[in-house]
Amino acid sequence: MSKSVKLKKGFTINLAGKAQQQLADFSQPDTFAIKPTDFIGMLRPKALVDVGDNVKAGTKLLIDKKKDSIFYTSPVSGEVVDVKRGAKRKLLEIVILADKELEYEPFTAYNISDLTAASREDVQQQMLDSGVWPNLIQRPYGIVAFPEETPREIFISGFDTHPLAPDYNFILKGEERNFQAGIEVLKKFTSGTIHVNVDGQGEVNPVYTSSEAVQINKFSGKHPAGNVGVQIHHLAPINKNDLVWTINPYGVIQIGRLFLEGKYDTSTTIALAGSEVKNPQYYKTYMGANINKFVEDNLTNDHVRYISGNVLTGENIGSEGHLGFYHHMFTVIPEGDKPEFFGWFFPSLQKLSFSKSIGSLSFLNSSKKEYVIDTNMHGGARAFVQTGDFEKVIPMDILPTHLIKSILAEDYDEMEALGIYEIIEEDLALCEFIDVSKHDIQAIVRDGLNLMQYS
Amino acid sequence: MKFLEKLVDKAKVPFDKGGKLERYYVLFESIESLLFVSKDTTLSKGAQIRDAVDMKRFMVTVIYAFLPALVFGTYNVGYQYYQAIGIEPSGAWDIWWIGIQRVVPQIIVAYVAGLLIAEFSFSVIRQHPISEGFLISGLLIPMVLPPTLPLWEVAVASIFAVVIAKEAFGGSGMNILNVALVARAFLYFAYPGDMSGDQVWVYLGGHTPIDGFSGATPLSIAGATVESGQNVVEALAAYGDTYSLSNMFFGLMPGSIGETSVLWILVGAVILIATGVGSWRIILSGFAGAYGLAFIFHLIGVNPYFDMDPMYHMVMGGLAFGIVFMATDPVTASQTNTGKWIYGTMIGVLTIVIRVLNPAYPEGIMLAILFMNVFAPLIDYYVVGANKKRRLKRATV
Predict the structure, then answer these.
(1) Does residue A234 lie within any of the structural domains?
(2) CB B53 to CB A357 under 8 A?
(3) Is the Cβ–Cβ distance between A160 and A91 less than 8 Å?
(4) Which of A313, A333, A418 sits opposite B388 (nearest CB)?
(5) Least CB–CB distance from B49: residue in A383, A402, A433
(6) Distance from B56 to chain A by nearest Cα, in Å?
(7) Does residue A20 belong to any structural domain of this protein?
(8) Same domain, A55 and A196
(9) What is the SS3 assignment for B232-275?
(10) Residues of A in contact with B179 (CB under 8 A)
(11) Does any domain span residue A342?
(12) Global pTM?
């Protein structure tokens, strides 16, 4: 039974610099990287290669010693040029200098009817060895799925409502076959439904309807309507002892490609967006790409922040960084490290605010207005004040303030009772954005999830 | 601005880590952050952008909401003064000037005692940032006090409220009771002679009032009818036009500085609701609770006070002020939306209960709000409990 859900709560942040629907003509970046820090819940990353080793796309680069059946593999073929470590020798990044012509590790290719007939055991080992497995995320906790678990259901959010998010209709164009094959593979892991949740306001992407094995649900509303956590809450919420998996449509396609073509093909279309980009558009590249080729001569100024992912949940990767494993966009916004004279007092139409406090006039603008927002905190940290605004942006039957406070108090029973299993960082990212007390709410949420997971 | 920026940066040096005045950094920060919104940027992971609103803007909105009632209250102090001593003022400015002379020192004393003395020393000792909350409390305290109150009492009450009601609980955001109301309650029980009766509500400036001057508040007049058996409206009519329904709504009558004008308080309520800073749920349910019970009493009608038209309750005393400006305090009110309905309704109901059923206290709003401040966590406990139950029920199905 497909469902149609209309969400009233939320807040869409409309930023300037949306990617034009066109593919850039450019030369591929020199280096690509895999970063253990992208994989939440990775406890003891261990590099399996050294500087100077030659690798193919799909060669094993990395494992988590605590979860050692899952391999993290090279997105491209080439030479390992750097194994970056941080304080206490923490593994940060394995960098590959890419070949001009990519070579692939061979994996077994199937045709679609063989794939339908194959068992879970048949496909699982190939998924673990090839590097596609980390696309599967387990809820609760939002960590890479455990191969020995069987999820109740699998959820796929077919659209993204984050600021400047890539248009999935554009980046997934022509991937029908791969998507269908990917779903065939996923079907083997659960006896429950595979949900594909699509934007209720537009046409359904033909990629999603290519597979009859999925249930298509429609969600409409402001951000975070596209967050899979919000969707799960309205379809079949996660209770204690429940376990579900989520996966991005792009991950499904990658799995499909692996089984149809017998290779780990990480080619992907990313969106380059943000107010400081001269030509925001889409780039066809590979996972973990170095960003310098995208921004070369393409920025309006150099005092900017380079964000892998979107501005609500992404990460500052600096001007020489590589995109994250799960990120299909790259955002460049101005740094905001300038003090603002009486910034809290003067009224402004230009500064976006959810609040309608006196002087925060952005609510008067049309909803189409695009804002340029820098990275300034716009205020100092203060104690929680219950403004009632958190409740207005979270379209779930969850009390954000109480949940956050129970995490700070490290009250396990309370966290559980208030629904910590139903959320991960991105689901409360809007709270972090609108918080007048300027707390780092996403970091708090992860602390709470860690407390629940490791105790 | 660059010049000022440099000046601030230069002045900052001794306050920085390792500097001579490191301990006093929080004080410096409070002034710096007043001048400049800091240059701090977001963390490298998580939300890379933040909403333009901060605690200062949020709190200043509340101050804007107070201003109409405060400006009118100042005028009213002067107006009552000239009425009582029977001199014709030479113009509106004259009236205002008397009020300003009375009210402004009270505000300054509340800020100096509460903010500069109590709040600053606690911030330095506890090393927590100075919160914007006192900008509100410092203005609210004088507004709920009679204009005749000695300044030293304002100072003592402000310090008591900040230290006992706020800092002892961990500072702004952690307090259980509304800070300004604690100041008032403190004075009410410590110096009852200066806080109640018929003589404190009109500032006379040492003059002898004219014959027939009373200074009684409508609540005490209404309370007295329980004994005398006289109809409340008739009893109020004995004071001329002052206590007519419309005049009490407009607010030219004796009372605490900010509380008399329902009209201007409602303007503040509109500001609070339109900006989303004050909870419309609390305001609406507060008035509804008060009107509802007053109406039931009116139907029962065992004595003249019971029998009074419920509209009179709405415009007498501090009901409107308390519901709009004090019950809506986001820190001490109920934190859940359902809880806010209960909390607001109970404040309205309790106010009428105290007014009508308890002859010892003519005004009930202060105690009603403090009482519900204490009960707000309990209300939330049950509302949050219902949320948990829904989740639990879902799990077992």
Answers:
(1) yes
(2) yes
(3) no
(4) A418
(5) A433
(6) 6
(7) yes
(8) no
(9) HHHHHHCCCCCCCHHHHHHCCCCCCCCCCCHHHHHHHHHHHHHH
(10) none
(11) no
(12) 0.91
- Angle CA(A193)–CA(A72)–CA(A122) in degrees, nearest 5? 50
Residue at a domain's end among A72, A102, A132: A102
Chain A contact for B169 (CB, 8 A cutoff): no
Residue with tokens 């299993």: A421
A314, A359, A433: residue with CB nearest B50:
A433
Contact check, Cβ <8 Å, B47/A376:
no
Sequential pLDDT tens for chain A (455 residues):
788 999 999 999 999 999 999 999 989 999 999 999 999 888 899 999 999 999 999 999 999 999 999 999 999 999 999 999 999 999 999 999 999 999 999 999 999 889 989 999 989 999 999 999 999 999 999 999 999 999 999 999 999 999 999 999 999 989 999 999 999 999 999 999 999 999 988 888 889 988 888 999 999 999 999 999 999 999 999 988 899 999 999 999 999 999 999 999 999 999 999 999 999 999 999 999 999 999 989 999 989 999 999 999 999 999 999 999 999 999 999 998 888 888 888 888 888 999 888 888 888 888 889 999 999 999 888 888 888 899 999 999 999 999 999 999 999 999 999 999 999 999 999 999 999 999 999 999 999 999 999 98
What residues of A are in contact with residue B167 (Cβ under 8 Å)? none
Same structural domain for residues A157 and A12?
yes
Our CA-based measurement puts residue A355 at a distance from the nearest CA of chain B, in whole angstroms, of: 7
| Same domain, yes or no: A261 and A138 | yes
Whether A438 contacts chain B with CB within 8 A: yes
> Using the beta-carbon criterion (under 8 Å), do B49 and A333 form an inter-chain contact?
yes
Distance between CA atoms of residues B354 and A240, nearest Å: 47
Q: In total, how many domains does chain A have? A: 3
Among residues A336, A357, A385, the one where a domain terminates is: A336
CA B34, CA B109: separation in Å to the nearest integer?
A: 21
Which residue, among B49, B66, B281, B381, would best test binding to A if mutated, counting the most A CBs under 10 Å from its CB? B49
Query: Does A167 share its domain with A292?
Result: yes
> ipTM, 2 decimals?
0.91
Q: What is the CATH number of the domain that holds A52?
A: 2.40.50
Do both A292 and A302 map to the same domain?
A: yes
A383 and A254 part of one domain: no
- Cross-chain residue pair A440–B33, CB shorter than 8 Å: no
Kindly report the nearest CA distance between residue A167 and chain B, in angstroms: 21
Are A278 and A419 members of one domain?
no
Question: Range of A409's domain?
Answer: 377-455
A42 and A164 fall within a common domain: no
B137 vs B182: CA distance, rounded Å: 10
Chain A contact for B173 (CB, 8 A cutoff): yes
Chain A CB within 8 Å of residue B329 CB: no
Among chain B residues, CA nearest to A432: B47
The answer to whether residues A314 and A274 touch, using CB atoms and an 8 Å cutoff, is: no
Q: How many CB pairs under 8 A join A and B?
A: 227
Cα–Cα distances in angstroms (integers) from residue B337 to residues A202, B285, B325, in the given order: 33, 12, 18
Handedness of CA A36, A39, A44, A49 (dihedral sign): negative
In a domain, A192, yes or no: yes
- State how far the Cα of B305 lies from the Cα of B314, in Å rounded to an integer: 14
Of B37, B170, B276, the CB nearest to A356: B276
**Contact criterion met (CB < 8 Å) for A239 and B60:** no
Distance CA A179, CA A176 (A): 5
How far from A380 is each of A341, A411, B53, B169, B302, CA to CA, in Å?
14, 27, 11, 21, 56
